[in-house]
Amino acid sequence: MIATPPAVHHVVQVDRTWTCRSPVDLDLVKVTITRAATHRNKDAVHLRPGCTGRIGRLMIVQWVGDGVKVAEGAHDLTVGGGSIRCLGKAPDLHQDGIQVLGGARITFENLMVSCGRRNSRLINSNFFVNEAGHSRLPPRDIVCDGCFLGGWAAHTVSVQRSVRSGVLHSEICIARFPQLTVKLGHGARDPVHRRNRVRQCSPGQLTLDPGRHVGTFGKRLVLTGLFLGQRPGSPVVAEARKRGAARFVPAGRTRSRHNGRFRLALRPRIGETVRLHSGSIRGPGTVVSVRPLIRLKFRRGKLVVKIRAARSYAGRNVDVQERRDGRWTVVQRLRLDRRGKAVLRPSPSGVAVRIRVRPRPGYLAAVSDTVRLP
What we know:
Elements: E1 10-14, E2 18-20, E3 23-33, E4 45-47, E5 52-62, E6 68-70, E7 75-79, E8 82-86, E9 95-100, E10 104-109, E11 111-114, E12 123-129, E13 140-145, E14 148-149, E15 155-159, E16 162-163, E17 166-168, E18 171-173, E19 182-184, E20 188-189, E21 192-194, E22 197-199, E23 205-208, E24 213-216, E25 221-228, E26 235-242, E27 249-255, E28 261-266, E29 272-278, E30 281-291, E31 293-299, E32 302-308, E33 317-324, E34 327-335, E35 341-344, E36 352-357, E37 366-367, E38 371-372
Parallel strand pairs: 1-3, 2-4, 3-5, 4-6, 5-7, 5-8, 6-9, 7-10, 8-11, 9-12, 10-13, 11-14, 12-15, 13-17, 14-18, 15-19, 16-20, 17-21, 18-22, 24-30
Antiparallel strand pairs: 23-25, 25-28, 26-27, 26-29, 29-30, 31-32, 32-35, 33-34, 33-36, 36-37, 36-38
């Protein structure tokens, strides 16, 4: 007698998309997509029309595209556990750990999905459900139960046009953009979001909005930024080291808002280096430049100039400028007294004048507001 070979209850393959189109009863599906995979095989697993049954354990390592893609026609399928790990992606693709565009009564149980990465962009979600593609009906009863959904994707969970779909009994990590951690869209009918624990799974990242940070002595300067991947309401502390000083000292504090954004109000008195932190999380540093405060007023036929700064401008020269033929021209130079003040009796009338102060250590060059002589 010829022995019947044992039934194969597992699938293991590399750089080829595994596609399910018929009933299955598998103990293991293991797919690895490396950077060498072709564009046609960019996704690890496709669940297509006719796919139904059981997959005991799903193990995916992904370097290019999506982990699992579910289409309309897949139905009554249970995935009993495993992991989906996205370690990279093609630069022009959005990436999802599980992307559900259709299907009915599909349950992912005890699955670890981790597709977000701190230093990568265009990672949409770990668990994404939305009617799209060739689907004529919204996804129905698609659930991740007892799952762990990692951080650093733009959304951790995104449930859009669907019916009775979502996540329950699961750990959900804070997303890259905190307000998008669990996004239940208007098109989601009876979305599932029950008995989940939303938590901080890894330290967030403090960022400052780009731009040159320049303030005026004694006036408020606002720094804005984004606390990525961090629970809203987290503290943000600024420390400053003034030019010539050896140590950083507290300069301001605030808390991140629901969307992760924050605003820090400082009052720099001289050029300084500012750095941010939140507990043990160290943020970026930036140089804050400062201009002296110049007050120019016309009183009783005289121009009165006053310079205010943390370092005295006594004995320094300032330039008096007039507007002529569309250009500012220096017409006189004044020396400031010990109080940083000077007085000038101008002769012409009807002209626009201003004061220009040259740069010095700790301060940028600055100009006053314009005064038009009567």
